[in-house]
Amino acid sequence: MEFIVNQFTDIFSTLPEGYLPKWLLFTSALGIFNTIQNFCTDSLTKRVYAGKPEQVTPLSARLFATWTWSVSMIRIYAAFHLQHRFMYDLGIWTYVIALTHYTGELFVFRGCKFNGPFLSPLCVAVTSLIWLTQVKDQYVKYD
C-alpha cells in the first residue's frame, strides 16, 4: 500500500502550481465516472437529455462514454503540461467542444432541458473556459 501512495505522491508532485491543474484533474475524474456509468447504464444520461430521452440508447450512451473518456484523458495530460501551449489549447478545446455540444442539444436539437443534470456539465464547461482563458499567460511558457 505504501508503494502505491508513494507512486501517487511522485506523480502529483509534478503537477504545476495552482488550482487550475487540480480542477482539470477533478473534471477528468468526473468524466471518468461518467464514462463508467455510461458503459453500464443509460439511465443518468437520459436525465441529461431529458428533452428527448427516447433517443438515448445503449449505443449512444457507449459512444458518449468513449467521447467523455477521450476528453478526460486529454484534460489529464493538459493538467500536467499546462506550460506547453499545444496542451493548454487542447484542454481549452475539450471544453469548447463540450459547450458546443450541450448548447446545440439545448437550443437546436432540443435533446436537453434546462434542468440540474444538464446544468452541471454546462456550468463546468463555461467555468473552465472562462478560467482557462483568463490565466493562460500564467501557465503557458513554451510555444
UniProtKB/TrEMBL annotation:
Top-rank taxon: Eukaryota
InterPro entries given in the database record: Erg28
GO annotations of cellular component type: endoplasmic reticulum membrane
The keyword Iron belongs to this UniProt entry's keyword annotation: no
GO biological process assignments: sterol biosynthetic process
One Pfam match: Erg28
Membrane topology type: Multi-pass membrane protein
Primary localisation category: endoplasmic reticulum
Protein keywords: Endoplasmic reticulum, Lipid biosynthesis, Lipid metabolism, Membrane, Steroid biosynthesis, Steroid metabolism, Sterol biosynthesis, Sterol metabolism, Transmembrane, Transmembrane helix
GO terms, molecular function: protein-macromolecule adaptor activity
Record localization: Endoplasmic reticulum membrane
Transmembrane segments: 92-109, 116-133
Keyword Methyltransferase: no
Record-stated family: Belongs to the ERG28 family.
Protein name per the record: Erg28-like protein
Species for this entry: Absidia glauca
Classification of source organism: Eukaryota, Fungi, Fungi incertae sedis, Mucoromycota, Mucoromycotina
